[in-house]
Amino acid sequence: MMEFTAQQIAEILNGTVDGNPNVKVNNFSKIEEGTPHSLTFLANPKYEPYIYHTEAGIILVNKDFIPSTPLKNTLVRVPNPYAALAVLLEMTEKQKKTKEGIDPAAFIHPSAHTGQGCYVGTFACIAENARIGDNCKIYPFAYVGDNVVIGNNCILYPHVTLYEGSRIGNNCILHAGCVIGSDGFGFAPEGEQYKKIPQLGNTILEDNVEIGANTTVDRAVMGATIVRQGAKLDNLVQIAHNVEVGEHTVIAAQVGISGSVKIGKHCRFGGQSGMAGHITIGNHVGIGAQSGIIGNIEEGRTVLGSPAIEAKSFMRSSVIFKRLPDMYRMVEELQREMEQLKKELNK
Questions:
Q1: In contact, 53 and 72? CB cutoff 8 Å
Q2: Among residues 161, 113, 119, which one has the least CA distance to residue 136?
Q3: DSSP 124
Q4: CA dist., res. 273 & res. 153, Å (int)
Q5: Which positions ≥6 away from 29 have C-beta within 8 Å?
Q6: Where are the alpha helices (H) located in the chain, listed in sequence order?
Q7: Active site residue 109
Q8: Which residues neighbour 115 within 8 Å (Cβ) at sequence distance 6 or greater?
Q9: Segment 55-112, tens digit of pLDDT
C-alpha cells in the first residue's frame, strides 16, 4: 500500500474524517493487530472492544458509529466500512506488477487465438480452436481445452482445467485447481454394474463469476450447466450436471449441489450444506451451514438443519434438543407415577 493521509482516504471513499486528517498509513492490519502506520476497519459489532485498544492509525467505521469512550485514533466514517476496505484493497492490488507476455515454455495450438495483452505462463496449455479474449492471465500449468471460449480480463490461476467446449465470460477469476466442464456423475444401472452415460453438454460461466480453489462445475448431460453473472463460489464446492446457479448467489466452502438443481438470484449458502437433485431454490434464499435440503424452497426464506426447516423454528428446536435427556427422564418418572396411581385406584 502506498502512503496515504486520512484526508486522502476519506476523499477516495466519500467519507468524513473524525480526528487528525494528516495522519499517514502505509499498510493494512486486523483491528487487534494495528500499528500506528496501519489502516484497519470495524464492520462487525463483536469486534468493537478492540477499537478502544488498537494502535491502528486510521480506522474505517460506519458513519453512525458512536464510541463509548474517547479514541486516540483517527476515524474515517463511511456508509459501509467493509465495502470501503474492499475499494482500498483493490487499489492496492492494481499497484502490483502484472504478468505479461507468452512464456517460451507455454504451448498454444496454432489454431488457437489469444487476444491482446494476454499472459500465458510456463507449461500452460491452450488447445485446438480455443479462443481467449484480451488482457487475460493464464498462469503456469493451466489447461484450456479444445473449443473453449474465454472472454476479456479473465484470470486462470495455476492448474485450472477447462474441459472441451466450456464457455467463460468476461472478468472471471478461476482459482488454483478448479475444474470446469468435467463429466457429470451419470451412470445407469445395468445388472450388477453401472453403465456410464455420456455427458454431451457443456458448462457456461457468465460475466464476473469467481470460482474458488479445487471447486468443480460439471458439464451437462445435454444443454448446459450454468453459473450466472456475478455468482461467487468458494473453495471445494461441487456443482453437478445441469445445475443453474442464479445471478449474484454466493456459495461457501464444501457445499454440494446435486444434478438439475435450479438456484435463484442473490441466494446465500452456508458451508457444507447439501442439496438433493431436481429441486428449485427461489430468489433471496438463505441456507445455513450444514443444512440438508431435500425439497423446493420458496423465495425469501431462510432455513437451517437437516432436513432443513425455517431458521426461527430450528433455533427454538435447538434449545429443546439440549433438554431432551432431562425431559426423557421426566417422562419416565411420570409414567412410573401413573402406573403407581393406577395400582392404587384398582385396589
A1: no
A2: 119
A3: -
A4: 32
A5: 35, 38, 39, 40, 56
A6: 6-13, 48-51, 81-94, 311-321, 324-346
A7: no
A8: 132, 133, 134, 135, 136, 152
A9: 999 999 999 999 999 999 999 999 999 999 999 998 888 888 788 899 999 999 999 9
Backbone angles phi, psi at 177, to 5 degrees: 80, 0
Of 61, 57, 59, nearest to 80 (Cα)? Answer: 61
Specify the pTM.
0.84
Torsion sign (Cα): 131, 137, 140, 143: negative
Calpha distance 265→228 (Å, rounded): 9
Q: Tell me the per-residue pLDDT of 321-338, one tens digit each, with 9 for 90 and over.
A: 888 888 889 999 899 889
User: Helix, strand or coil for residue 16?
Assistant: strand
Of the residues 37, 53, 109, 241, only one is catalytic, namely 241
To 10 degrees, the CA torsion angle through 31, 35, 40, 44? Answer: 10
| Torsion sign across C-alpha atoms 79, 85, 90, 95 | positive
The two beta strands, 210-211 and 232-233, are parallel
- What DSSP state is assigned to residue 297? B
Q: Which pairing describes strands 193-196 and 161-162: parallel, antiparallel, or unpaired?
A: unpaired
Q: Which three cell numbers stand for residue 167?
A: 464457455
